[in-house]
Structure formats: structure tokens, C-alpha cells
Amino acid sequence: MKKLKIKRVHEYEVDGALRSSIQELLLESFGDDYPKERVYFKQLPHFRYLVLNEDNMLVAQVGLDYRVMNLNGLPVNVLGVIDLCVKKEYRSNGLGSLLLSEIEKFSGDKSIDFLLLFADHKGLYLKNGYRSVMNECTWLKIDHENHQSLGVGKEVMNELMMKEIGNAKWESGCLDLLGYLY
């Protein structure tokens, strides 16, 4: 594989051309369930890591959302991993693991207790040290098509995965996302 570069970009810095590239990659990766006219499902991430090829073409990306959550009554600092995806012809070359490694390096000296994500396909994340957890989650339900809050959801989520980054230890019990579900 030719030389690739990783770039961190804040969401407010994403211009029209980059937005189109991100949108194309998200639609290729997540299909018709992803909104066609935007680069987020329910909410904009705070920033993204982008992988660009030698022609400066976007070949992989991941969004990140930093927030406080409530784990069994205690505040925890969480960096949420959102919409990690790789262009089809670049898959199975370690780019997903590369992005997860970059996120971990970034998080190492920050006030981040856990990396958190929701995954239907867990193999990549298990391979990179994440583990499945079965907490009862509370979150803000959002109608992503109409940009409206629908109320509060509460259930155990089979897709929930996390990785301990700081000194805090993950516990079973209740996790209040204090916001939307990624």
C-alpha cells in the first residue's frame, strides 16, 4: 500500500469538498440507512481523524465525541468513537486498527477515562482491546430525519463496547449517556 497520511480535523473546519468526500464514504460504508444529505447520523462529532492516500483522496475516517457520562452515579469522561469506516478497496489493510491506535495515542495524556462505541460487527474492536459490556443505558432519543428530540430511551444495549484509557475502572450497572446515542 502506498503512503497514507492521517489528519485530525475539527468538524467546524470541514469544507464543502471534504464534506462531499466524507458523505460519499459514509454512504458507501453504511448504505441506504445513512442520511444522504449530511455527514453525521444524529449529531455532528467534535472532530474526526481522516486517512488520505497519496492523491489526497479520503480512504477512511472516524468521528469523535467528547463528553461526560454518568456511570452508576459517578461522572466519567468519555471519548465516543463514531462511524469508523474504510473505503472498500482499502479494507483489510489495517486502516481501522490504525485509526483506533491513533485515537488511543491522542487519548493517552488527556482527561479521558474510557473510549466508547456501539458496534454491530465487533471483530475489529475486540482485536484492538475493546470489550463488550452490558450496562443499562439511558440516552436522548433523536429523530435523525427531522432533527427532533423524542424523549428518553432506556435499555441494555448489546452493541456497547468500551476500552479503559484512564485510571477509572468500568463497572456494570447503569450508564447515562447524558445525550444522544452514537
Describe the protein:
There is one protein chain. By secondary structure, this protein is an alpha+beta fold. It has one domain (5-180): Gcn5-related N-acetyltransferase (GNAT) (Aminopeptidase), CATH 3.40.630. The chain has three helices and ten strands; from the N terminus they run βαβββαβαβββββ. It has helices at 16-30, 95-107, 123-127; strands at 5-10, 47-52, 58-71, 74-86, 114-118, 131-132, 136-143, 148-156, 160-164, 174-180. Strands 1, 2, 3, 4, 5, 6, 7, 8, 9 and 10 form a ten-stranded mixed sheet that branches. The longest helix is centred in the first third of the chain and has 15 residues, at 16-30. The radius of gyration is 16 Å and the shape is globular. The two termini are 31 Å apart.
Helix segment tally: 3
- Write the element-wise H/E pattern from the N-terminal end onward: EHEEEHEHEEEEE
Report the structural category: alpha+beta
Q: Which CATH architecture would you pick?
A: 3-Layer(aba) Sandwich
- Overall pLDDT metric: 95
Protein traits:
18% helix; 3 helices; Aminopeptidase; globular; 182 residues; 10 strands; alpha+beta
How would you summarize this macromolecular structure in one to three sentences?
The chain contains 3 helices and 10 strands; from the N terminus they run E-H-E-E-E-H-E-H-E-E-E-E-E.
